[in-house]
Amino acid sequence: MTSRRAAPSRWIRSALWAFVSLAACAGPIFAVGPIVWMQQAPSDFERGKPDGVAVAARGGLLLARAVREIAVKELREDAQPFLWSQVIDSKGNLYAGSGNDGRVFKVSKGGQGSLLLTTGDLAVQALTVDARDNLYVGTSPDGKIYRVNPEGKSEVWFDPEERYIWALAVDRSGNLFAATGEKGIIYKITDQGKGSPFYDSPESHIVTLAFDRQGNLLAGSSGKGLLYRIAPDGKGTVLLDTALKEVNAVAIDPAGRIFASAIQADSQPIKQLPSSRTPRLREEATPTASGAEAPSLAQLEEEALQPVPELEPLGEAKRAKSMLYRVDPDGSSTTVWVSEEETAFSLAIPAEHEIYIGTGDLGKIRRLGEDGSSLLAAKLPGSQVTSLVSSSDGTLFAATSNAGGLFELEKDVTESGTFVSPPRDAASLARWGQIGWTGESPSGSKVEVFTRSGNSAVPDNTWSEWSPAYTSPGGNKVVSPSARFIQWKARLSRQSKGNSPFLESVSLTYLPSNLTPKLESVTVNPPGVIVVRMPLATDPDSPETAFSQAPSPPAGTEFGSPFPLPPIGKKIFRKGMRSIDWKASDPNGDTLRYDLYFRGDGEKEWKPLVKGCLDTYFSWDSTLMPDGRYRIRIVASDAPSNPSSDARTAETVGEAFMIDNSPPIIETTVRKEGNAPYVEAKALDSASPVRSLEYSLDASRWVLVMPSDGVADSLSEQFRIPLERLGAGEHTLMLKATDSEGNVGSSRVLLSGS
User: Fold this and answer.
1) Cα–chain-centroid distance for residue 143?
2) Spatial separation of the C-alpha atoms in residues 250 and 751, rounded to whole Å
3) Engineering a disulfide at 121: which of 111, 139, 413, 458 sits with its beta carbon 3.0 to 4.6 angstroms away?
4) CB–CB of 65/413 below 8 Å?
5) How far apart are CA 88 and CA 408, in angstroms?
6) Angle at alpha carbon of residue 288, lines to 286 and 292, rounded to 5°
7) For 398-418, b where at least 16 C-beta lie within 10 A, e where not — what string?
8) Which residues have C-beta within 8 Å of that of residue 439, sequence separation ≥ 6?
9) pLDDT tens-place string over residues 58-95
10) Positive or negative: CA dihedral 14, 16, 18, 21
11) 456 or 293: which carries more pLDDT confidence?
12) Would you say residue 200 has pLDDT above 60?
């Protein structure tokens, strides 16, 4: 037997060379370069759709059991949402119990399915057969057990005072055992239909039953997650105390080892249904004289025996949704499998070392290894695999819920199976490169790969047809048309009785279209506020402008100065400086380059402020610009990461802002009112409103003066400064006016006192 194995590096190198001409156009590295989509890990493949193909524990694909949906006309017509239970009789007939109409369906061996029984209850959650092929049906939430003989005649066999019949099992003597809730009683029913409590557990619900090789009854509980072993005389012991809340399935392998699945269910069983029957209590409480109910003796005893609060599970159990345990004949237990993502609903062991578990994660059936490994054996249309049973020849049957369906997993590995990957979103129109794979192909086996593409996230009839088969593991040019989405399909095949091929990984290269950058916001900072940055980062090939020269640092902050330079990122004030920052992004992750332009009111043309800026911040010396209102236009380009022919730009214009570096002018007139002098002052500004006027007489403290109209908000404001009778000699009145941009103008008035 020979095998062929492709070297991954060889074909990936050849795929990348397909795009080398693009890369040669624009510098050393492009952000928008060829992308390699590789599927190799188990999680990669489990997102796809296998059909007759399994996902190996270490990742990769190989042939598995063929999956066939069993046609049941009434099940399809009535669209039963749940199939809770299954059992197979000695003739190979399969029975399945449903909800929410409480029906039982029969599937003849190798034939079609049909409706057998309608119970009138909500759900059939328990089925079993005896040695004479009588079928027993347990319903919920009205808690009845029906018997259906091989001829199809049904009757109510046992009606306990219970709401839920969770599980049924028959011992070697033909006695029927029923696990119930909400009192956690297991009933024993004779072949005459007479029943009585067999074991009264401390739990509220017993949800699963099975017999071990010695004839002991195994019972799993919901609440504390206990597995009981109950001897034929009704004496029970705890065989396993799990770290989770519910033991929901038990199976025995050919060696007599016990496997039990446990789940982190709520305080009620995970299959809990609403009741149509009034709850029945074990004992009636005794009313007191005041009308309140006094606790019964049984209630007091039960409270006294309550255990101390349980400790939270540690380690993996604290995070687990499901765990599988193995109990060996000597009573020792081992954790076989733990899942933090999936809830186990069902368990079956068709042969030694074949452990199958059905989960509630996208209808997955896993084959587990006792070393904790997990092979995804099938992925069914239903959301939950709620029941698994195996026939005497090793065929596996699965029942699903949401939606209800029956499936057969054939005993032997199929000779051909397919796997369809999830669609890949290239985020934009893409050109496809090469597809290749690695793996092993024993003699007589082969792997073929196909692709299709489209522009909708979910493949539909607008997608292209599947391509012809690619047969070279070392790399094949993808022939599917350019689109945003692509998908691949693998077909594995072998000769009769030959070995399965193994597909280890699949890789596909593509080049997405270049998308336009996004400019999200622009902020013009207040006058004089700048941020301490590294030296201006610009493209070295960008032309200089009147404003692109970095200004000299503020006085006192030069290197060697006794005052250190402020830390990078700190805001400081520097008279005459203006700054602007903006937010930008690129869908392709490209490096962006920015050109900034300015334009004053009344002007038509934009003038360059800086070109080739690689930062999202720029500051400049506004004293080089005439006073007035301006706007800044920012143009973002992804040219640093793309050939010039593919480069894209985006632009935006910020809000108008004022540049005013001229101080207000103060005009003064000295007047007298009687013998008291006063000064009339007029403050004028060419660009910004006058905000305040202050005066100081003979270098005393500054005094704020209110304008004559009461509000300082215009380019020209009048002020009156009253002065007390001045003493003899010379007096100096200093005035300073401040505009809204922080510019300060000053003036001086000489006065003489008498």
Assistant:
1) 40
2) 109
3) 139
4) yes
5) 13
6) 95
7) bbbbebbbbbbbbeebbbebb
8) 5, 6, 60, 447, 473, 501, 502, 503, 504, 505
9) 999 999 999 999 999 888 887 889 999 999 999 999 99
10) negative
11) 456
12) yes
C-alpha dist (Å) from residue 387 to 124, 346, 365, 566, 609: 12, 5, 10, 70, 72
Q: Give dist(CA 693, CA 704) in Å, integer.
A: 6
Which pLDDT score is estimated for 112?
Answer: 81
Condensed to tens digits (0 to 9), the pLDDT of residues 464-481 reads: 999 999 999 999 999 999
One-letter amino acid identity for 331?
G
Answer for the pair 652, 634: CB distance below 8 angstroms, yes or no: yes
Helix (H) or strand (E) holding 15: helix 8-17
Instruction: Residue count of the chain, please give it.
Output: 754
| pLDDT-based confidence at residue 538 (cuts at 50, 70, 90) | low
- The whole-number pLDDT of residue 540 equals 57
Q: In this predicted structure, what is the pLDDT of residue 571?
A: 86
Whole-angstrom Cα distance, residue 579 to residue 46?
52
Pair type for strands 502-512 and 424-440: antiparallel
**End-to-end Cα distance, the chain:** 126
Type of residue found at 423:
P
Q: What are the residue ranges of helices labelled H in 64-184?
A: 73-78
Selected residue with higher pLDDT from 536 and 296: 536
Cβ atoms within 10 A of the Cβ of 370, count?
A: 15
Which of 184, 209, 446, 476 is CA-nearest to residue 347? 209
For residue range 219-235, list pLDDT tens digits in order.
999 999 999 999 999 99
Provide the strand spans (E) within 313-373: 322-327, 333-339, 344-351, 354-359, 364-368
Helical spans, DSSP H, in 241-393: 297-304, 316-319
SS3 content of the chain, % helix, strand, coil (to 5): 5, 50, 45
Torsion sign over Cα 713, 719, 724, 728: positive
674 pLDDT above the threshold of 80: no
The per-residue pLDDT for 27 is: 36
Q: Indicate yes or no: pTM above 0.90.
A: no
User: In this structure, is the dihedral angle defined by the CA atoms of residues 275, 281, 287 and 293, taken in order, positive or negative?
Assistant: negative
Element (H, E) at 44: helix 42-46
Query: What pLDDT sits at residue 263?
Result: 96
Q: Which helix (H) or strand (E) holds 14?
A: helix 8-17
